[in-house]
Amino acid sequence: MAILYKYKVLIVDDEAMTRDLLSSILSSKGHTCVTASDGDEALDKAGMEVFDAVVTDIVMPNMDGITLTKELLKRNPSIPIMVITGFTDEHYYEESIDAGATDFINKPFSIAEFLARFHRMMRDHETVCEIKKREQEIEKIGAAMIAGIQHDSMARIEALKKEIGELKKGIEIA
Description:
Number of strands: 5
Helix content: 55-70%
CATH topology of the domain at 8-128: Rossmann fold
Strand content: 5-15%
Order of helices and strands: EHEHEHEHEH
CATH class of the domain at 8-128: Alpha Beta
Strand order of the largest sheet: 2-1-3-4-5
Shape: rod-shaped
Largest sheet: 5 strands, parallel
């Protein structure tokens, strides 16, 4: 699968082995990865750098992945966030999605599954960004059209007023 974009990804997990694995997987595909061992460290890094995406574990010391997701989305409402967990409890999925996570994956997962879901998340994000960009362009065009119509209407009204005034003068003379 050819990747069109290279992303800067924040990887957050309290297990060094998982952080290193995810960083290696994404780096091998040309993405830049920065890691953090918990939510507090991740927020600090997110305050200093701009990231295109976040991959975070749920259960971590200091700040869990659900709280981190909410905090990151307050700062950047459109950032795609993938939540991962080794716990199979269904409420983690619901909590993650309710918090604003874009995707959710259970550990253990295969490299192929992780990459497929990561790239789908990023393609979806790019599509949403493109749609928003086009909507803004359409709004600008619409505003320009309305302004043009208003200008033309005002010019026509002024011309009609002048014509009516001339007609009135013609009636008064006759």
